[in-house]
Write a structure and sequence with these properties.
With 167 residues, the protein is of the alpha/beta class. 56% of the residues lie in helices and 17% in strands. The protein is built from six helices and five strands. It has helices spanning 3-26, 41-57, 78-102, 117-128, 142-148, 151-158, and strands at residues 32-36, 60-67, 107-113, 132-136, 163-166. Strands 3-2-1-4-5 form a five-stranded parallel sheet, with helices on both faces. Helix 3 links the parallel strand 2 and strand 3. The longest helix is centred in the middle third of the chain and has 25 residues, at 78-102. The radius of gyration is 21 Å and the shape is globular.
Length: 167
């Protein structure tokens, strides 16, 4: 085969492959995924699942962590409370950045403060234009769920967009 002709074939195939890849990305089911983390091992399980999904879809990823506001009846000062919350959030997000780097996915991170993490997550998803929320859940049922609450269940029940729950 003529070397010049071979280059044309390879170049056209590369162009077609790139074009097909671009079409897949445009038709991706999830273009912007929001993942939440509290720094726990369980939350990281959900994050890793979400990162794998984002890698396959080629979607944008935003990770959110929600800090608790200063409680009125606390022995800590407002400054020490805020610093502790920020330190915890930074550590949680650092672990997510490491996991994202390992699978070659770029992420954007947000720290917000809210009394109700579920509300903050749903609001962030709406504001950012996300089309999927990925969260982890303990899978508690019955009385333990009623007593302990479930931020994941709150997000599922209030979110206008799909929520993927990882156990």
């Amino acid at each position: 085969m003529n070397p010049a002709r071979r280059c044309i074939k390879i170049a056209s195939r590369d162009y077609i492959d790139k074009e097909a890849s671009d079409k897949k990305r445009r038709k991706a089911l999830y273009k912007h995924i929001l993942m939440s983390t509290d720094g726990s091992e369980l939350a990281m399980k959900g994050v890793k699942h979400g990162l794998d999904l984002a890698k396959k879809c080629g979607g944008k990823v935003t990770v959110i962590t929600v800090n608790q506001p200063y409680p009125l009846q606390s022995a800590a000062t407002t400054d020490s409370w805020a610093q502790a919350q920020k330190t915890h959030a930074d550590e949680a997000l650092a672990a997510v950045f490491d996991a994202a780097k390992a699978v070659d996915v770029e992420i954007d991170a947000r720290q917000v403060t809210d009394h109700t993490p579920a509300e903050a997550i749903v609001e962030a998803a709406e504001t950012l234009g996300c089309d999927l929320i990925v969260m982890a859940s303990h899978g508690r049922r019955g009385v333990s769920r009623l007593l302990l609450g479930s931020q994941t269940a709150e997000v599922v029940s209030h979110s206008p967009i799909p929520v993927l729950v990882v156990r």
